[in-house]
Structure prediction request, 339 residues.
Amino acid sequence: MPNLAPPVVDYICDLSIKDRYPAYLLLDQDGLIREWGGNIKIYGISDIKIGEAVGEKVTFLDGFFPLDEEKLFLACIQTDSGIPADVHIFSSNQDWWVLLLDATEKEAQRVVLQQKANELSLLRDKHAKIMDQYLGKEIAEKLIHLNIRESGECKFASVLFADICGFTSYSEKRAPVEVFKLLNAYLAHMIQPVLDEGGIVDKIIGDAVMAIFGVLPSGLPPPVQAVQAALKMIENMKTLNNDREMQHQDTFEVSIGIASGQVFLGILGSKNRRTLSVIGHHVNLASRLEGQARPNEILIDNNTFKEISELQSRFSKTRLVLKGIREPVSVFSYEVGDE
Prediction:
């Protein structure tokens, strides 16, 4: 070091290895061990012999030798003992010196934080891809950035249940491969309207779909979103059925129930698997309405009807006795052919 007095050089050298555990390996041109020293065992290096290939005894150096460069620095490498170390490799008189210095606490913490950040980034990417597949890219991105409390929160939402009528009995007489192929075709026509209207597909249970509207920001009231999605579902099913009729294939209709009101929105599940979901009276009510709906019929509750303004003319009022509810409930019905 030019222009530095020997005491300064000695002090700098002492400072660089203070409270650290230096060790070294001396290798020949081909990476065979010639000599070693220092706190070599702290890095998980033991039972080495002169003449052995370093890569066979020190896994974190495997594949490095022979080197094409005169020197190489590897920061915070995970050694065989698990202790991170800075590895300095340099040549001298046609030999290779490998200097090991355990990474300082600050550097080790930085690496741990970086690893955690990388893991979080990978997990986020994986989560986004899964959500993208089931929710649609735009909706998935919005949902990821929503600050939904894990403990849950109350929210005004519309819940939609839709079921393919007669599909269960049909599937009992068909091969599973055929059933799945047909089911996917129909579900695609049921799910897309939910995504188009800004809803979230909460569950797919066999031939039934549960969707939530009002979780994501929208310029439309949740009941309007839900009813518009339901109307599109029926139109989509008609289109699919027309195509299948031309091929002399079986066709199916959908029954739909919608209820709106305060629901409890939160994250359900365990640490291994969690999902966004809603619970509450209006979830049960929507399910009951779907159970009472006829093929190609949409049944909505009074809360939904009050919010759909221009769409109200499509619905007619009726009263139904629903399972689990003592008194008859005022509901509103839309059926294909009513218009």
User: Anything to note?
Assistant: The longest strand covers residues 254-269. The chain has a mean pLDDT of 80. The chain has two domains: 6-105, 146-335. Residues 105-135 form the longest helix (31 residues).
